[in-house]
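step 3/5: co-fold with S-adenosylmethionine
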Amino acid sequence: MKKFKYIDLFCGIGGFHQAMESLGGKCVFASDIDRDCRKTYEENYGLEPAGDITKIKAADIPAHDVLCAGFPCQAFSKAGKRLGFDDETKGTLFFDICRILEYHKPKYALLENVRNLASHDHGNTWRVIRERLKKLGYNLLPEPVIFSPHYIGVPQHRERVYIMCVRKDIGNIKPFSFNADDMVPCTIESILENDKDIPNVKDYKISPQMEELIDLWNEFLQSIKVERLPGFPIWSDRLCDLDPNEDLSQYPDWKQNFIRKNNELYVANRKFIDKWLRKARKNPLFFGAKAKLEWQAGQTKKPDIWKQIFQLRPSGIRVKVNTYFPALVAIVQTSIIGSRRRYLTPRECAHLQSFPDSFKPDEKPAQAYKQFGNSVNVECVRLFAKHMFEACNDKKK
Ligand SMILES: C[S@@+](CC[C@H](N)C(=O)[O-])C[C@H]1O[C@@H](n2cnc3c(N)ncnc32)[C@H](O)[C@@H]1O
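step 4/5: write tokens
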């Protein structure tokens, strides 16, 4: 399609918008319930999105060729299972997509959702979605495609489900295949800004106390005598002898297992750990989640957190290999780049979602992080939109 009209439902800050415009699309309607997203959207694209989609009549939406939607995943009602598909989607935002598709019958629809949708409710959610879309007159692949930007050289591990729908009279979708050979290698450097070019770079730096804390954990990893670096979480309050009066059976099996492993690590390194704990406990940050470490950066002779990327998670400081970032999320937990001793900036988050540098993020970093965390990767949308547009009717050919 050379020129086409599309609508951007649950538009957020316009991940679909970026991709569709680059393919010749013109946005004729957008909607998002979140006021801050609507503001960012309007500032960037000069189009004011409407609000809550459940309150908008399909007849008030302009005609369009493509419907785009990265919709929130919700369970379908159990009652619906007895009543049939039409009723099953009622009360969910997928129902609103369906009523707009039913009214306008656009040629294409491209939907995106979290990976979990594929297996949600033992596959029932996907079954309902697929049957409903088929009933509305669309061809789609038997399974949703699961894809991540890190497959195509963008260093973010973000597995998402993409659902391509083509109106039956337009044609069939070719199966989508992506092999290990097609993988484009990633480097985190490809999305990082130069520190000297970042305005207020000090706002993104971690505190000196945090640096000391990471040095402490590095000392721990480099000093313990082990055959393999612990694959289990290190819980500093469990680096001690087992208390004979504590009944471990009160805990689930996985927790008992981690407690025992921490104890074994302690027993084998008692002298060093006692001394290290005395020092660590002097750091005011060494409590709660920061007194726990999850080393997920593989086996190496000289582990060094500063060479990796890490996140402060409720379960502990999680260290990952520096090849790609974990998925951006709408809540905090912004990744820290060890070599730069700072958090990702909003601009770097924009890069991870493949937004161009002309995009103006929300001025408040907390809002910008949230909006990029909710967004969709532009290059992934482009890939699936292009694949979907290649659908054709063999008879017509
Ligand atoms: C996963 S995000 C989609 C983000 C978008 N694809 C992007 O690139 O930024 C889902 C969006 O749905 C919006 N939303 C949730 N309920 C809604 C409703 N009833 N009407 C309109 N938008 C809604 C949320 O505010 C959120 O921005």
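step 5/5: annotate
Residues 194-344 form one domain.
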